[in-house]
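RECORD TYPE: inverse folding
INPUT: structure tokens
STRUCTURE:
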């Protein structure tokens, strides 16, 4: 079982209250006295800790970040057996953050994890605080993934596992490690709050993850290599009232049917089961050419003669975004139906 050193008089570090005032002469005199006291070899661990902490917090309170960095790093170097060294380096890391020196802060946060045992600060693990900061500071996907894994494995009750599974999956995506990305997306979807959690920067996280995982698990046999091939097959099926071909052509995953004012992820969007239900007894026609969308990755085919909601339906075609499989990625699929005249 992991052992922690409990600090009974250790205050949480909060730099928001640090002023930028210079250290006055009385404070300098006090620090000299305290440093002189540290030279007493008979000091017990508790007294030595209290003096070092008082010196460091005094410097921080005066906004003298460079002095506290020099003092604490020298102390750690000269006292390698001090059981509070992880805390002194944590203070050093925060001092670097206060001077916007994130690369130096990152170095010390990572060093604490590698070289020093954990401490509890007012009930919070120093290692946990390091990991939380490293996830925010680190830029490389491989290092962020490492920190995500460590915080998930070591501190599952202190974080939102649901969010971290999602964020880890996005880092795997950046590395094109799709096997691990899909595994992490699946773990995200398995969490009970996956469909309701609000994640900053990922407003459609659940739907996008669900679409990707479901598409990966599907046959994907409805895609066409080119837009021309897809459009030709669909137009020919409409003109021949061949609902079976249309059923085979439409996407089997994430296919939608809705008005232009709805969102594709709207749970109220109608689900089409078979085109036979809508074609029987109707005179259906379609345009000769498709209309391109706002991007080169989407297109529309205008059709007419339907009896549900509006006589005009636009068949929505889009490129498949699935870099996991190079044979499928970039193909075209009939992804849905917009009911009503196209909004400009």
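DESIGNED SEQUENCE:
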């Amino acid at each position: 079982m992991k052992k922690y050193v409990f600090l009974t008089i250790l205050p949480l570090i909060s730099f928001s209250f640090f002023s930028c005032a210079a250290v006055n002469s009385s404070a300098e005199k006090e620090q000299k006295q305290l440093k002189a006291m540290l030279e007493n070899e008979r000091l017990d661990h508790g007294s030595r800790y209290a003096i070092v902490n008082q010196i460091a917090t005094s410097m921080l309170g005066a906004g003298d970040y460079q002095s506290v960095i020099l003092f604490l790093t020298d102390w750690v170097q000269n006292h390698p057996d001090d059981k509070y060294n992880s805390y002194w380096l944590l203070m050093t890391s925060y001092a670097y953050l206060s001077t916007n020196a994130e690369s130096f802060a990152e170095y010390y946060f990572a060093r604490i994890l590698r070289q020093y045992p954990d401490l509890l600060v007012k009930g919070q693990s120093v290692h946990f605080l390091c990991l939380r900061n490293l996830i925010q500071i680190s830029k490389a996907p491989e290092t962020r993934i490492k920190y995500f894994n460590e915080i998930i494995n070591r501190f599952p009750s202190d974080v939102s596992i649901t969010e971290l599974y999602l964020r880890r999956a996005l880092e795997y995506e950046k590395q094109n490690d799709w096997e691990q990305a899909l595994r992490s997306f699946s773990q995200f979807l398995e969490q009970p709050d996956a469909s309701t959690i609000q994640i900053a920067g990922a407003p459609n996280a659940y739907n996008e993850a669900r679409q990707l995982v479901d598409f990966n698990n599907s046959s994907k046999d409805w895609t066409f290599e080119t837009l021309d091939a897809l459009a030709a097959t669909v137009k020919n099926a409409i003109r021949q009232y061949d609902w079976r071909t249309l059923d085979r052509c439409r996407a089997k995953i994430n296919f939608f049917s809705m008005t232009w004012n709805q969102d594709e992820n709207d749970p109220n969007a109608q689900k089409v089961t078979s085109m036979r239900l809508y074609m029987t007894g109707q005179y259906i026609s379609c345009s000769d050419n498709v209309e391109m969308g706002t991007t080169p990755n989407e297109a529309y085919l205008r059709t007419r003669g339907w009896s549900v909601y509006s006589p005009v339906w636009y068949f929505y075609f889009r490129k498949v975004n699935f870099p996991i499989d190079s044979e499928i990625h970039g193909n075209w699929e009939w992804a849905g139906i917009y009911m009503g005249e196209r909004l400009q």
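NOTES: Residues 80 and 116 are 10 Å apart (CA to CA).
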